[in-house]
Design brief:
The chain is α/β, with parallel strands linked by helices. The protein folds into 3 domains: about 150 residues, FAD/NAD(P)-binding domain; about 130 residues, Polyamine Oxidase, Chain A, domain 2; about 90 residues, Guanine Nucleotide Dissociation Inhibitor, domain 1 (Orthogonal Bundle), CATH 1.10.405. The protein contains 17 helices and 22 strands. Its cofactor is FAD. Keywords: Oxidoreductase. This is Flavin monoamine oxidase family protein.
Length: about 450
């Protein structure tokens, strides 16, 4: 068992942990980053599957994600725009397929009016929300006590309008059934992107990609840390003491299967649902125990289908497709920069994702490709490469895209989410305000927690 002594031990080598470690190292503090997986990146993972480069995890960059854009520029990476020339496709409640351009789905004038009116109402509500402090809104408790689905259905009896409004934060972002989270949680998701309108605008939220894959961000950040990053090192025990409570000198000791790291501070830079994998000595305070039990991961399957050519472009289609009635509720042209082959990416979320995993792999593939064919035609059924990103089976992730509170949990516990416990600090995209659930939020949280530790270290 090797022993190390550092100023800060960072648990988790995703974008948040590696950003924090780099900020601290630049400021003159010593760090050790302990990562359970055999790779860095966390929920960013660019890999080659059957000869095709696929973004198994996060991949998009939107114009409001300033922390991510700054990091991409600083690392010398290039971006390119998602292909979006041509018509989008919408499948309606009876299975009819419509081509359209612009942001509004091709629905009846009455449904369009309901969607527009409620979107305007939501934008006004979101404008009042501070994404860093949603629980501080005067109506936070009221908005956190009603589900997203119930609130929408109280606004209109137009089911198609409700389904289209609901999936922007439900299936598409929080990846939970819309009855399982609150209106306030939905408003936070929208506020983190600047507005509800931004969240439903695919050309905004899914704007650009990084040439060569987004995992290059954590890979390059880890490269700068060199031997201070330790892979295959899940932390089993974290001993800590807080001098402000009279319990010892203050500091932490992190123990893995092969090493012990003594440090002044610890950063837990991984999904909060994994805190229970670590034995804390002494136990964390009651508030944290309660808080962490009210957070859970959503679940979405990211489906990659690679074809010899991007055949949909020849039909005048952009590749952008939506339907709250389809197994794959949204899909996009995900062709790699400079690639002659065409790639589609589709998403199967929440209850649908649960349901298809009761099927055999072959039947699941058949059903998902059948759904894609409703958007793009029969050619979609015959990809040369097919792959499902199943983050729910990842031991060190256990869902996707991120964690959110159950009904009523956000106003009750949100204010304590980022609060340090003695020398232990918390940072990941799941607890960000701006950039919540995105790489941008992870980088913001890494910067935030590093600044807090530096303030303490220099006090």
């Amino acid at each position: 068992m090797s022993e190390l002594t550092r100023d800060v031990v960072v648990i988790g080598a995703g974008a948040a942990g590696l950003t924090a470690a780099n900020e601290l190292k630049k400021a003159g503090l010593s760090v050790a980053v302990l990562e359970a997986r055999d790779r860095v990146g966390g929920r960013l993972w660019t890999d080659v599957i059957d000869g095709a480069m696929l973004e198994i995890g996060g991949q998009w960059v939107s114009p409001d994600q300033h922390a991510l854009i700054e990091t991409i520029d600083e690392l010398g990476l290039e971006t390119y725009e998602r292909y979006r020339d041509g018509d989008s496709v919408y499948v309606g409640p009876t299975g009819e397929v419509s081509r359209f351009t612009g942001e509004m789905f091709p629905v009846s004038p009455e449904t369009e009016r309901a969607i527009a009116d409620i979107t305007e109402r939501l934008d006004a509500m979101v404008a009042e929300i501070d994404p860093d402090r949603p629980w501080a809104h005067p109506q936070a408790e009221e908005w956190d006590s009603i589900s997203w689905d119930a609130w929408l259905r109280a606004q209109t009896d137009d089911d198609e309008a409700v389904r289209n409004l609901a999936f922007a934060t439900g299936s598409a972002m929080l990846t939970k059934p819309t009855h399982a989270f609150s209106l306030l949680q939905s408003l936070l998701m929208a506020a983190s992107a600047g507005s509800y309108s931004h969240l439903v605008d695919a050309d905004f939220i899914l704007d650009k990609r990084v040439v060569g894959g987004l995992q290059q961000v954590p890979l390059l950040l880890a490269e700068r840390l060199g031997d201070d990053v330790f892979l295959g090192s899940p932390v089993r025990t974290l001993e800590w003491s807080d001098p402000s409570t009279g319990s010892g000198q203050g500091g932490v000791t992190a123990t893995t299967d092969t090493q012990t790291v003594h440090a002044r501070y610890a950063i837990l830079a991984h999904a909060p649902i994994l805190y229970s994998r670590i034995q804390f000595v002494p136990a964390l305070p009651r508030r944290q125990h309660q808080l962490h039990q009210h957070l859970s991961m959503g679940f979405v399957i990211k489906v990659h289908a690679v074809y010899e050519t991007p055949f949909w472009r020849e039909q005048g289609l952009s590749g952008t497709a939506f339907s709250p009635y389809e197994l794959s509720h949204e899909a996009y042209d995900n062709t790699n920069h400079g690639d002659e082959r065409g790639t589609l990416v589709g998403f199967v979320s929440d209850q649908n994702a649960d349901d298809v995993f009761t099927l055999s792999a072959e039947e699941r593939k058949e059903r998902i490709l059948e759904s894609l064919s409703h958007y793009y035609g029969p050619e979609a059924k015959n990809p040369v490469v097919y792959y499902e990103s199943d983050w729910g089976s990842e031991e060190w992730t256990r869902g996707a895209y991120a964690a959110s509170f159950d009904l009523g949990g956000l106003h009750r516990y949100g204010a304590d989410l980022r609060t340090a416990v003695g020398p232990i600090h918390f940072a990941c995209s799941d607890m960000a305000g701006a950039g919540y659930q995105h790489v941008d939020g992870a980088i913001r949280m890494g910067r935030f927690v590093a600044a807090n530790i530096l303030d303490k270290a220099h006090a």
